[in-house]
Specification:
Elements: H1 2-18, H2 48-55, E1 82-93, E2 96-104, E3 110-113, E4 127-134, E5 137-138, E6 158-161, E7 166-169, E8 181-191, H3 205-212, E9 217-220, E10 224-228
Antiparallel strand pairs: 1-2, 2-7, 3-6, 4-5, 4-8, 8-9, 8-10
Length: 229
Amino acid sequence: MVAALLFVALAACAKSSSHAPAESPPPTTAVPIGVVAPSAGPEVSSPPETAANADDDGPASADAEPGLRPPPPVTPPRPCGLTAVLQDGGAQTNGQRFALTLKNTGSKPLRLVVPGDGSDVGWRTPVVTWTATMNGAPATPLEGGRCGMMNRIEANEIFTLAPGASRTVKDWVPLPSFAPGTYDLTLTYRNDPGLQARKGGGESDAVKRLIAESAACEATTNTVRVTLP
């Protein structure tokens, strides 16, 4: 009987030891999110809510957002020496009125992407966004929509600006979407290599690599006073 009781006591001790709480691991130190070098591929750890968007067909909430407003950046922009100048051509010709000149004032080459189909609603890089004021007060863009189709990004839409070089683009510079009136306008160009093309972009692996190696940076233009019909 004593041997049996001793056996039960030893078994209970072993059982309680197996359920003892494990020793807590030492605390870890948070690692800051990386940034993209001007001419190197992105080594970025995105937050969970944005990393998911980088792998799917585009921002899942784009259709639900009022006015199809561009989403926040997937890849954080960094100072890169890029400047932007906006010129108003005055008359709209074939959907084109404004010219955007990008200049590299830094000391390193910048690989960038020209605006294209979907840039105005944040479905592809670069994202281009208008900001407007009327009599000093911020103006709200008109709400609108568009079809879900989008042209894929081609290799000839990706270019490199050497230090001191500039390039002027007119194609796919969107028209401002505000009610008729006179506004002070600026245009922000944001190249975001982490932003994926929306539905079925169909870019080749070579183009995807070029986009991934582009510079994560942005620039806002000078202010232009414009009267919209």
